[in-house]
Design goal:
There is one protein chain. It contains 5 helices and 4 strands; from the N terminus they run H-E-H-H-E-E-H-E-H. It is mainly alpha-helical. The chain has one domain. The strands form 2 sheets. The protein has a two-stranded antiparallel ribbon with strand order 1-4. It has a two-stranded antiparallel sheet with strand order 2-3.
């Protein structure tokens, strides 16, 4: 009887832990979504400028949301309406591929954080200077990565 009770308690504790991890992951994705779409501000500035940009200008969704991003075929975009950047997903970022004519590079949470801060991608290629450089925390980077991974 004692062994069965211990097993039941262990199974219950495990179920609670799994639920808590799931709730934590959902909260992390929601925080990342808020950073991406501007509900939570990201501090950023343009290259060569010391003045911080207004929160509306630093929203990732301004350029990287599916509605505003570059279509899969660049030829499909008219020259007059060409967007600034590609849509971001975790799968797309994690896939090694060349960017801006450089060697292939792939991202993880740490590399995403590095490019947001410095503007240098994992293959040491400088990203466009039109993208702000962000003063992001490690927690904000992990939250963004969790959100992008769920897209």
């Amino acid at each position: 009887m004692g062994l069965a009770l211990a097993a039941a308690l262990a199974a219950g504790a495990y179920a609670v832990a799994v639920q808590q991890r799931s709730a934590d992951a959902a909260a992390q994705r929601e925080r990342g979504a808020a950073l991406f779409d501007g509900r939570a501000p990201l501090a950023g500035r343009l290259v060569g400028h010391e003045t911080a940009l207004p929160a509306l200008a630093t929203r990732c969704a301004n350029c990287h949301d599916e509605a505003s991003a570059t279509p899969a075929s660049e030829a499909a975009a008219s020259a007059a309406a060409k967007p600034f950047a590609t849509a971001l997903t975790g799968a797309q970022l994690a896939q090694a591929r060349p960017r801006r004519g450089g060697p292939p590079s792939a991202y993880d949470a740490a590399r995403l954080c590095a490019v947001l801060r410095s503007g240098t991608d994992p293959a040491h290629v400088m990203i466009s200077t039109t993208m702000p450089r962000y003063d992001v925390t490690d927690l904000q980077c992990r939250d963004l990565w969790a959100f992008l991974g769920a897209r």
